[in-house]
Amino acid sequence: MSCLLPGMELDRATIGLVAEAERIARQLSVEHVVVASGVPAELLQHATRQADRVVVLPTKEPGDYQIEPCLAALHTVGAELKPRLVLLGQDTYSQEIAPRLAHRLQGCSIGDAQRIEIRDEKIHVTRGVYGGKAIAVVRANVEPAVVWTRSRAFAAEPERSAACQVEHHEGGTDDSSGSEIIERSREAASGVRLEDAQVIVSGGRGLGGPEPFAELGELAKSMKAEVAASRAACDAGWVSPSLQIGQTGKKVAPELYLAIAISGASQHLMGIADAKVVAAINTDADAPIFRHCQFGLVEDFRKVIGPLKEQIEESNG
Amino acid sequence: MDDATRQVLWNIKHVWVMYVLLVPTAVVAGYGVYRHVRQWRRGQPSARFDRPIERLARVLKMAILQATIWRDPLAGALHAMMFWGFVTLLIATTVVMIDHDFNVPIMKGSFYLYFQSLFVDCLGALAMVGVALAAIRRWGLRPKKLVFSDEANGILVLIFVILASGFLLEGWRIAATNDEWSSWSPVGLMVARVSTTVVSVDALRTAHLIVWWGHLLLVFGLIAWAPYTKLLHIVTAPLNIYTSNLDAPAGSLQPIDFESAEVFGVKNLEQFTWKDLLDLDSCTECGQCTSVCPANAVGKALSPRDIILDLQRQLPAMGRPLSGHTDVANEPSSIIADGTPLSAEALWQCTTCGACVETCPVAIEQYPKIVDMRRFLVMEDAQFPRTLQGALTSMEQRGHPFRGTQASRTDWADGLDVPHIKEVDQPEVLLWVGCGGALVDRNQKSTRALAKLLQHAGVKFGILGRDESCTGDPARRIGNEFLFDTLARQTIETLNSHQVHTVVTACPHCFNTFRNEYPQFGGKFEVYHHTTYLAKLIGENRLTLDASQIGTITLHDPCYLGRHNGITDEPRQILAKVSEAPLIEMEQHGTQSFCCGGGGGMSFVDEPPDQRVNVERSKQALSSGADTIAVACPFCTTMLEDGVGALQSDRKVVVKDVAELLWDSVENSNAAKADVGDRDKS
Amino acid sequence: MKILVCLKQILDPEVSPRDFQVDPDRLEAVLGSASLVTNIFCENALETALQLREGSDSEITAMTFGPDDAEETLRKAFALKVDHAYRIATPEIPHCNSAGAATVLAAAIKKLGTFDLIMLGRESGDWGEGQTAGLVAEMLGLNCVSFVDQIDIVDAGVHLQRQTDVGREKLVSDTPVVVSITNTETNVPRIPKTRDIMLAHRKELTTWTLDDIGLDEEKVTRAANATQVVELYIPEETSSCEFITGDSLDDRIRELAQRIANIVQSV
């Protein structure tokens, strides 16, 4: 089963998540049930063409999420459906639900899955460990395996010809909760969240100070990109820590990630593992970032950023 | 000529009044000095009386001969004129005293004429010139490094009036007594001649009487007042020079006994040593330290002079129980305070380059006090810039300060077949790579060059590889003595366990730590900076060089090589072999080099873009016009390369370690030989 | 308020990739010359707890489990002046995953009695699954709030704040509650004072065996066996980067701009 939780939209991450569940279900020859809670109608619509069943849990209002009731409802449905695999996304809610749901369903939980395979009838999850320095394949010895995934990395699946029905479930019995979300505020931040950004321009220690970030901002504007930074740049106080990409920062999945004056520590690379194209500008041809790039330019960023911006603006027309 | 003399105390009656006045003068002056002595005695112990011959020589050079004051030629000249003038006048007065009060008739004959008359007159005139220059400087030129105060103005006026009235007295005596030897006192004679054209001799006699007493009162007044002003340095400066650190600026930082110390570092004046407190009272406010401070030069708040003067200002309140202050267990608040010269901000701008200590004419040790206060901030207050926290934590956890580095200790040696020291049979030297040489990509090239040079010269050497760890230099200068203590003991133990006796390192910071600081912890090694060692190899003809390929070079002397350890010739010897073009010297070079900005842990702190020491130094290096900026320190390499990069010069100027340049030269020589060989074959 | 902070000691995440090795038989990372450090998110949790204590009448207990080496983590916590510290001495449990860890921690917490706040790091720098807090909560039958970056004590319990994918959230929670802490600008771990580091070695640290908390190795292993590592390897670096070449810098920049524009326009 795959779980769609409040806050999810019809985007690459969710499409990838449902598609992966659909593929695994086929491999395991089991039913694919999408369990959704407080998601938009078009997402449900999409789910009906990817799954055998779509079960909708009740919410007070669209998008409403409370930890304990949501968990209780998923537990109830899970107990009824007895899935072999429960797939969740990478968002905050999925991550916090996964281990607890696994425990309640007496299964096992595995986090941060980059790939899911069936070997010898068993569920195997591939994931980066030790700050991206190693890859581990973990086998689920007990089921259900409740797995939260880097679903942005998963490919889409063609829609089924026939849509299934949307069923409404009465949810869990336990509505009492000692913890309650009492306020929720959309960030007033300008632009797109880094996690959703399609293009990211990121700067690192090699920039040497906060001032080149202004130029980076200009370049980003020409590329319709968001600006991000490496941990070194954030630690130095050049930019806000909220821009940090990496193991202890944000994990992003843009179409293009342009790394400028970033050497490419493994922890940083872990944050951009899901990027489609990585490009870099760095003076050092031996910098690790180039080993993870599709293309790159060995040059001092100071000589590149200005003219690059002009060139891109030109080609934008 | 033998009967040449003059009447002492001519025209003066009731001379006993002078002797009576001498008593309060001596009491007031004596109390003024005693007050300070009492304060110094409150300081912590410090051993400063060993090597007396060296110390006396230092006093002779710096105090008597005024050798260090000439860095600022105008200030040096005017001070020397006044100093030697007044010393002469003091001797003359002593002669009078011996002659008159002790009845030893020495003030006669040619001694009287040559010394007591002519020489004293000339030196007095020289002092007047000095005063005039001082006046022009203080009130006309107004250099930034001076302190402009009523006290300083008052002293200058007083000195002028005393000197002038002295000449008037002399002149009027000559005129009134018709002194037959007056031509031996040219200035006095001139005053006499001018005076007699204006007034009658009788009037001069009266005026002489009044001015004599006035002159006496002013002199006594100045003597009494002096210990309460910057003139205190007349007493303290020689004392301070005698007790100074003979190895300064190196060897200034002392270990802490962590078991017994009540406070780690300096929070209040009481934690300074008595020598530190004497330092404060020795300051002449000349401002030389601040004028050479690289942080100050780029517009930062740090001013070593103001730190010394602010501490000096707080001295009178030292140790006094704060009346009415019952807050926080009656503890005096820290001397480190925002908005003063002792702000944490300023303390975190010091690169410990040592220029202040090197230049101080009275041997004050400024930067060690800054480190003492940093010790308090780091160890007791746990307050310091966040990026330094990263460096310190990394040193503690991983034994190197470069947080986030992707390199390992031996990446630089890929393909070079450099063995671990334990695999070398009877090694000549240990190559101590240092964190800067191993873990910073840029410097790996320099380290490779050095290793290849050693191999080329057939030196039997090894490295410690993963067994190497930070010597602790940044930790000590950042003020984390506890961490330094740990790292130092570990390193010494590692070296001893590998039976290392001789160490070669390309890092002046490691070099300085091995040479000047590990002996404090019982670690005694023969240590060479790579420039010294390579110069030695060249001298032994173990390297073949070709100097034709490398263009013009300027050399940036690393502070911890040149100023702190006096090594300035060896890198120049190497560069002379590397390039045919003569070395282009920057204005500030050798022991007076200008810091790259990276010492004292400051390469781990972000500087505001418009206040970067490395950019300033890079500007100086670029304006030398040289094609290559030679360096001899991994920190300097990266600081200057960044600085040159930030300046976006159109000229292609490269920053290279001396070892890299030398290796280029060896390779060029090999290529030339190969060429010859090829030609021979064909 | 009684606060428990669980700390995990891990292989230094910043060990250079060249020094990082895995044991292909044991399917574990090799310590080698790398150091053992306290997991950064655990340090954030401890910092959050220390800040909470500054404004309230609270008591902080630090807990970890593992072999003798793990004691260092508690000594560091002592240097930051936690009130009590407990180590559950466990043998090296192969692949002690979140489930195994939570089993040990939950049993120890049960033995220690009630805490108002049980704080853990968001995830660890080694395996980084971010599951332990949730599992501990389930085993203790408590509520759990994850990714918290700010805690305020209020009459009714605690106010918790966190950043989620849909925005900033404020929660009110009864105590006891299990909280996982993430890093933010305000909970950067502080540096201990030197004197406190020296004193930390004299503080009394309680060491319990698995037996003391009513567990045995087999029980932990059984819990941990829910998942099993079957492969662990260092990925081969595939250098497929195409370096942009060209006669002049202008040409190279033009080429780079073209490639970037192609991708950007297709988005």
What does this protein structure show overall?
The complex is a heterotrimer of chains A (317), B (682) and C (267). With 317 residues, chain A is an alpha/beta fold. Helix content of chain A is 29%, strand content 26%. The N and C termini of chain A lie far apart (47 Å). With 682 residues, chain B is mainly alpha-helical. Chain B has 26 helices and 7 strands. In chain B, the strands form 2 sheets. A 4-stranded parallel beta sheet of chain B has the order 2-1-3-4, with helices on both faces. Chain B has a 3-stranded parallel beta sheet with strand order 5-6-7, sandwiched between helices. In chain B, helix 3 packs antiparallel against helix 4 and helix 9 packs across helix 12. Chain C has helices spanning 40-54, 71-79, 98-112, 132-140, 194-200, 217-224, 249-266; strands at residues 2-6, 9-11, 21-23, 28-30, 36-38, 59-66, 84-89, 117-121, 143-154, 157-164, 167-173, 177-181, 206-209, 227-233, 242-243. In chain C, the strands form 3 sheets. Chain C has a 9-stranded mixed beta sheet with strand order 11-10-9-12-8-1-6-7-13, sandwiched between helices. In chain C, strands 2-5 form a two-stranded antiparallel ribbon. The radius of gyration of chain C is 22 Å and the shape is globular. Classes of the chains: A alpha/beta (317), B mainly alpha (682), C alpha/beta (267). Chains in contact: A-B, A-C, B-C. Chains A and C meet through helix 4, strand 5, strand 8, strand 11 and strand 15 of A and helix 4, strand 9, strand 10, strand 11 and strand 14 of C. Strand 11 (179-185) of chain A pairs antiparallel with strand 11 of chain C, so a sheet runs across the interface.
